[in-house]
């Protein structure tokens, strides 16, 4: 066998080496090009961008987005997070890539408050979540179900209007969020349990309000343990310990409600309420079975999200109108023309009140009840706007920033309902299809109570505005419009108001 030329061997080795090196660099270059992460702040070692967020994360993230762009990447501890801050970016994630971002990341709130994700809000996207959602829509949150309990809304709102009228006759200022939570909890209680949750306003209802606010606040905090799981056991911020204590209080309340409900089953024969229907349909055709814990966790969702989110929007709307008396006057003029002053406003009046609807939309825009959507997480790696999004990346849509985007809204810091009455914004709707206004989110994981939230805000706000003149209590000075961050965006200082009745006396007793 002839020997190989040593120079040929040398050239062969050199060529092979050059081939592999070249291929390696080309692949690396292609990988780098195709896997470019979105821009974002570098953050700190180990903890990443967590220390940058401060006490008002939605505001901080909005400012950072102006620097880094509409799709922004942050390293949060050992986790990846991407933030969408414009309508187009939100549409890309919540519509184009909706299925890939249909799950929730694990977090302390889901574990310690929501019965280890056994509820509807934090449940894994799958058959159990679909069953919870289907039953809730059919029997409480959907269009037909909402029509069925419209009379309950009217009766409970009547109780609140009478209580407010009595306060106005005594010259006593009302604390708006307390009144709203009391009324709305009773509305939901009537639908779910066939009874008012609170018979009289007092310490029990105030404790309920405090528990709702505490849950929404603690669940909205960026918990270090969620982003650095290896040190979660240390509970550095003390959040998880407080969540566990709060969960016990909620569990006692919900267990008591369910036990009392079971004892009165004979009284509801032929007239089942929501809990009766849920208990009777705990199995579905796919073999999914709801446990008692699932039912309890669902009730927790409905009582907390159903009261706090809508009440915060109504409170902000009233505060904005008290700061802008011309808007309040224009709303009164529209209502006096359509409804008159001899009776209370009814839900059937709302389609004839475009200015009221515009006020609601403007409040959803400027003061969305959920400033940052509940987090989602990518099931698979994906691409967006030319950027690479790794698998298991958390998604946060800054709904608050979208509502204040100067490229979308003229003078976004102004409260101006007229923007929704004509021109390009006239047909914008808050139900999740117009990404300029998504107070309830969008896509598969849009808030299940979207329809109910809109109905409650329009009807309750309209009734309060129609029934009373709203004034700042004497000696209060300028209204405080500061925010308190949480899952729901609260007013830092609860709204108090002095009321002056506008309707015929008979309208407050019916």
Automatic annotation (TrEMBL):
Q: Which UniProt keywords apply?
A: Heme, Iron, Metal-binding, Monooxygenase, NADP, Oxidoreductase
* The keyword Metal-binding is annotated on this UniProt entry: yes
A Pfam entry, by short name = p450
Q: Which domain of life is it from?
A: Eukaryota
SUPFAM superfamilies recorded? Cytochrome P450 (SSF48264)
The cofactor named in the record is: heme
Family statement: Belongs to the cytochrome P450 family.
Name of this protein: Flavonoid 3',5'-hydroxylase
């Amino acid at each position: 066998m002839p020997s190989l030329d040593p120079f040929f061997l040398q050239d062969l080795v050199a060529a092979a080496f050059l081939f592999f090196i070249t291929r390696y660099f080309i692949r690396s270059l292609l990988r780098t090009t195709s896997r470019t992460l979105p821009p974002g702040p570098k953050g700190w070692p180990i903890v990443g961008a967590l220390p940058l967020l401060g006490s008002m994360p939605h505001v901080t993230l909005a400012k950072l987005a102006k620097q880094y762009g509409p799709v922004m990447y942050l390293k949060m501890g050992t986790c990846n997070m991407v933030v969408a801050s414009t309508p187009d970016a939100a549409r890309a994630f919540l519509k184009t890539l909706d299925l890939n971002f249909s799950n929730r990341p694990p977090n302390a709130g889901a574990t310690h408050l929501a019965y280890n994700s056994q509820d509807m809000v934090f449940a894994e996207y799958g058959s159990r979540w679909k069953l919870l959602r289907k039953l809730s829509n059919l029997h409480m949150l959907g269009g037909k179900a909402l029509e069925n309990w419209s009379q309950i809304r009217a009766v409970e709102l009547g109780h609140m209007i009478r209580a407010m009228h009595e306060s106005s006759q005594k010259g006593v200022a009302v604390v708006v969020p307390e009144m709203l939570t009391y009324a709305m909890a009773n509305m939901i209680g009537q639908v779910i349990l066939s009874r008012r949750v609170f018979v009289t306003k007092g310490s029990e209802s105030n404790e309920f309000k405090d528990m709702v606010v505490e849950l929404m606040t603690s669940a909205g905090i960026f918990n270090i343990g969620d982003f650095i799981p290896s040190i979660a056991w240390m509970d550095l911020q003390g959040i998880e310990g407080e969540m566990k204590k709060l969960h016990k209080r909620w569990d006692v309340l919900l267990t008591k409600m369910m036990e009392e409900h079971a004892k009165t089953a004979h009284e509801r024969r032929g007239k089942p309420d929501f809990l009766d229907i849920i208990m009777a349909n705990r199995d579905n055709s796919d073999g999914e079975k709801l446990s008692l814990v699932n039912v309890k966790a669902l009730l927790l969702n409905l009582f907390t999200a159903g009261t706090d989110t809508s009440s915060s929007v109504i409170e902000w709307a009233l505060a904005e109108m008290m700061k802008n008396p011309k808007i309040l006057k224009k709303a009164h003029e529209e209502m006096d023309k359509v409804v008159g002053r001899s009776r209370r406003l009814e839900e059937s009046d709302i389609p004839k009140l475009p200015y009221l609807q515009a006020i609601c939309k403007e409040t959803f825009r400027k003061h969305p009840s959920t400033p940052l959507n509940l987090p989602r997480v990518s099931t698979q790696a994906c691409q967006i706007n030319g950027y690479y999004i790794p698998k298991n990346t958390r998604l946060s849509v800054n709904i608050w920033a979208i509502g204040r985007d100067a490229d979308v809204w003229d003078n976004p810091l102004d409260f101006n309902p007229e923007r929704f009455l004509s021109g390009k914004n006239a047909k914008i709707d808050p139900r999740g299809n117009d990404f300029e206004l998504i107070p309830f989110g969008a896509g598969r994981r849009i808030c299940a109570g979207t329809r109910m939230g809109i109905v409650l805000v329009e009807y309750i706000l309209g009734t309060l505005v129609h029934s009373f003149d709203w004034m700042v209590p004497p000696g209060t000075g300028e209204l405080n419009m500061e925010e308190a961050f949480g899952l729901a965006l609260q007013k830092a200082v609860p709204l108090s108001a002095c009321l002056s009745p506008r309707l015929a006396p008979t309208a407050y007793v019916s």
